[in-house]
Structure formats: structure tokens, C-alpha cells
Amino acid sequence: MSLSNTDPVLILGGSGIVGAKAAQILRRLYPDLPIAIGGRDFAKAQSVADEVGHAQAVKIDLERDDLGQSANTNYSAIVVFVKDATLNSMKYAQTHGLPYLSVSSGVFEVGPEMALAISKPNAAPILMASNWLAGAATFPALQAARKFKTIDDISITVVLDEEDMGGPAALADYERLTESAPNPLLLVDGRWQWVKGDDAKRAFVDIDGTTVESTPYSPLDVLGLSTATNAKSIRVGLVYGTSASRRRGDHFSTEIAIEINGELTTGEHVATRIDIVHPKGQAPLTALHVALGVERLLGLHGGEPVKAGLYLPDSLMNADYIVDRMKEFGAVFQENVKPAVG
Fold first, then answer.
1. Alpha-carbon distances of 137 from 97, 176, 181, 332, rounded to whole Å
2. pTM of the complete model
3. Measured between alpha carbons, how far is 172 from 113 in angstroms, rounded to an integer?
4. What is the CATH number for 31?
5. Using CA atoms, how far apart are residues 330 and 285, in angstroms rounded to an integer?
6. Are residues 24 and 91 in the same domain?
7. What is the mean pLDDT of the chain?
8. Domain that holds residue 204
9. pLDDT of 168 above 90
């Protein structure tokens, strides 16, 4: 199927590190899919568009309802890599009936997006993909969870190397989500709790056996995993510092540890740990998951184009397919299963 006559996918923040990487992955997956690189700096956006190929640069003004676009401009989807406090990008998508994907909101600040989506339920498909790396922890956890009859606890610990922050927009997101946010949201013994960070810090042994401190964190993974697995407790913890690979003298990596305790469908009580490492850091995995979200929204894989509604990533995409793609794009998986203690 040729996509050359399809309207472009507009990537807001497409000239940033992760946005540009997402455009490159979309181009790798779909060589003839038109792409528009949107940003405030037209020259920077043009440079990325030239590199991606079959792409155009677009100057974006998030202060305007029309995003600064002419009335005869058409897009096939809107992808947002920046925090749009105006929600004008989402309103634009609803006005034009376009699939919309965002990645920059914490649990504590999704209310305005949800309210806007609920107020116009038939306007557009809204994919809220503000999970860790847009789903890089959620989908492997869901795949592993299928082996369990009941789950007592899911603990996800992510390692963000301090040299792997990305650009200014990513830094702003990190500071807002970790410094300006209220207490993190965790599921503890079946009850949702906003916990104080100092009270919920934990020691974490990373993939190389080094003990570091993990601080509770609240991406949207806690919401999706709670509904998909019925786990009694769910925690996401963040380690910000030095990744195991950089400690060894190599390039920084991104690391995700998924620990699941519970009863397998075979009746055994086990503790499973899956370590996921990408040797190039967080950008490739984030970009990949966004690209796969766009793929699904447009109906390029996994079914027909998604109908209007409000979605989390796990409600639209197949975990096995996503995990296979993660491995194809460089993620390394290591699993260890042992009898549960207690």
C-alpha cells in the first residue's frame, strides 16, 4: 500500500532529539509516509526534515488555536513531544478529527487532557502515551504478567543516566515531574496512595549488582498496569544518576527492571525479574514506541484506523508485537525467575 498521497503526520517538537528520532523510525518503517517536522525554530525543523527525507518543516505557534497553520493545511495525525500547557494541539486535533498522541504528562496533570477528551468523545482518537519511554516498561510487564494467575506486586525501576536527559524540553519535563509534582501515586495493597517521596524510597540493585536509591515516580504505567493486571500493588521507581554501562566506561544506556511477584498459572509462587537495556539510551526506545503508536492510530498495523475515544497504549497495541519490535531496534532482555520468598 502506497502512503505517498497520505496527509503528513505532524510531529510537534520534531526537531528535538527524541522527536527527530521518532521521525527517523517512522521513515524506516514506512518509507513513503509524509512527515511534517513542527517547531518554533523553522531552520532547525528544516534541517531535520532534510535528514529524514520526504518531510517538510512547519513553524508552530502553540498559543494559537490553529497552531499558526493555514486553513487549507491538512495532516493525518498529531504527535506532541512537548508539554502543551494550552492544549491547543489537542483542540486542533479534535477540530480536524485527527489522531492525537502525547507523551509529556504525569499522573497528577492528566485531568485537563481527560476532561477535553471526555467533553468531545466523538471528535478524535486521543492516545495518552505518557508512560515511561511511551510504553517501554508497560508492554514487557504485560507480556510477563500473562504467565501469572494472580499478582501480588509489580515493581518497575527505571534508570535514567544524567547524561541521557535529551534536549531542553525533556529537561523541563523531568524537572516538572520530579520537582514541581505532588507526591507520587502508587497502588499499595489494593489502595491508591499519594506517598511522600522520602517515605517510599527503596534500595535497588541494578543490572550490574550495584545498590542505588530508587525514588517513587508516577508515569501513566501505574494506571494502565492496574487495569490490565489486577495486581494488588504497583510501584514505579526512578534512579537518576549513572547507568551501569557508563559506570563500566561505556556509552550511557537506559535500563528498566520489571519485578513481578505472584502465583503462576501453573500454581508456583515466583518472583520474576526482567532487565531491559538499550545501549544507546532512552531516545531510541521512546521514539520507537511513539512511532508504533502512530502506526496503530493510522491503522498501518494491528487493525483498522482507531476510532474516536480516549486510550492508553496497552488498550490499543499487542504486547508481543511491541516487545519483538523493541528487540529488533536494539533492546536487550534478560529474565530471572526464582521461588517467591514469604
1. 30, 21, 21, 13
2. 0.94
3. 19
4. 3.40.50.720
5. 9
6. yes
7. 94
8. 134-281+322-339
9. no
